[in-house]
TrEMBL record:
It comes from the Bacteria. Pfam families: DUF436. NCBIfam families: TIGR01440 family protein (TIGR01440). Belongs to the UPF0340 family. It comes from Streptococcus henryi. This is UPF0340 protein SAMN02910293_02189.
Amino acid sequence: MNLQDLENQTRTIVLDIIDRSAIKKGQIFVLGLSSSEVAGGLIGKNSSAEIGEVVVKTILEELKAKGIQLAVQGCEHLNRALVVERQVAEDKDLEIVNVIPNLHAGGSGQVAAFKFMEDPVEVEEIVAHAGLDIGDTFIGMHVKRVQVPLIPVQRELGGAHVTALASRPKLIGGARADYATDPIRKF
């Protein structure tokens, strides 16, 4: 896979999801990434540090420019723990856990996050406002309710299936209630 094409496609996808998810400055965006799937293999079988670095660096650049915080989900070997900046963990009172990811325990996305973040730490769980799932890693456990699926402008990145989630406040009150305009679906 051409790494420049990967960067361009990643940027297109993440900008689309940032815009349509209505995520705001200071909120958390979760990334699930299988570099094996991007490379055309099976999840967890062919991790690629290069692919992880391109994808995470590109997403991190776009989120930082908008003041949005990135959380990178690890694989099941780390119980889906997430890499965030230490300041995010402290500001949001998140449980920091002691592990340093590698390609086969955490995955290429987490290794790249440790490389490109200023002061990365692993946390047990978060509540993100939106996220991107590259390679069917299932990020839903980290996105707050009510989850709204978003179909990305591009449904594949390399060989990986791409999905996304946003979240919105619960609608309560029933038929008699009035609601604010939905910033995600715009109805």
